[in-house]
Write a structure and sequence with these properties.
The protein is mainly alpha-helical and about 260 residues long. The protein has helices at about 1-15, 25-40, 45-60, 65-85, 100-105, 115-125, 135-145, 160-185, 195-210, 220-240, 245-260. Helix 1 (about 1-15) runs antiparallel to helix 9 (about 195-210).
């Protein structure tokens, strides 16, 4: 789902930017992305995709795009959330759907994420400064869980997992690093002639950040590496437009991290 949250804004740009005219039926790529997103049955991911639509319209309103497309996609996503919400009232044992019952019928009352957060908090209280060590959440969850089904390799929140595994110092540095990168990316809105695709990349990156608060996507190396690469693309383009103060800030920030 995280990969699709990144690709869907780029899919809108690809379909309606007027570039790549040698591709026929470009809209089919966008339709495929949304179909795959719906079949992930990720409630929070679908909700984030719905939130993307007003921003997508702001970015592409100068292009030849009709509001009806955005309204249609929005209606489908809202309908999907309603259907999943209705089925979520039942457990997988009493689910009326035979296929994908474990993905669709997930009652909120049986959500295990709060238990993972509780385990993270208990581990942080045990070793607040340096934690249990990177990559040890599978051991943390075995130590502090009450029921076997509450065991997991990830805390489903990358920031909380960093604090529980690596302690206060590393957690603060990581939060500061992410804040620094995203804050500097927001400077792209000051540039009038910036490549239009960068706005869609930025929207996808913000979606990934929000999704990392509820899922473990940033714990997967491929997704995290893709995030860093796209951040570098935006910041490099920003620097190419003559904003040298960003280069100075970056150099100072790197020296600060090495000092710590």
């Amino acid at each position: 789902a995280a990969l699709l949250l990144m690709l869907i804004p780029l899919g809108w740009w690809f379909s309606f930017s007027g570039k790549h005219k040698f591709f026929h039926y470009k809209g089919s790529v966008l339709v495929l992305f949304y179909v795959l997103l719906v079949f992930t049955f990720g409630r929070f991911s679908i909700f984030l995709s719905l939130l993307q639509l007003p921003f997508i319209y702001q970015f592409v309103k100068k292009e030849k795009i009709k509001k009806i497309y955005l309204c249609l996609v929005g209606a489908i996503l809202i309908f999907t959330l309603i259907v999943v919400g209705i089925f979520s009232k039942n457990s997988s044992e009493n689910c009326a759907v035979h296929e994908f019952r474990s993905q669709i019928c997930k009652p909120i009352s049986k959500e295990v994420r709060p238990e993972y957060l509780k385990q993270s908090w208990l581990s942080f209280k045990s070793y607040p400064l340096f934690g249990y060590g990177p990559g040890t959440f599978s051991l943390i969850t075995k130590k502090f869980n009450v029921i076997a089904q509450y065991s997991s390799v990830y805390a489903h929140n990358v920031f909380i997992q960093i604090f529980s595994e690596s302690g206060l110092f590393v957690g603060i540095i990581y939060v500061f690093l992410i804040f620094f990168l995203y804050k500097n990316m927001m400077s792209i809105f000051k540039i009038k002639n910036l490549h239009s695709e960068n706005y869609f990349i930025f929207l996808g990156l913000v979606s990934l950040l929000l999704n990392s608060l509820m899922d473990f996507d940033w714990n997967l190396f491929a997704i995290y590496q893709m995030t860093i690469i796209f951040i570098a693309v935006i910041l490099w383009d920003y620097q190419q437009h003559g904003y040298k103060e960003f280069l100075f800030k970056t150099d100072t920030f790197i020296k600060f991290i090495w000092l710590i």
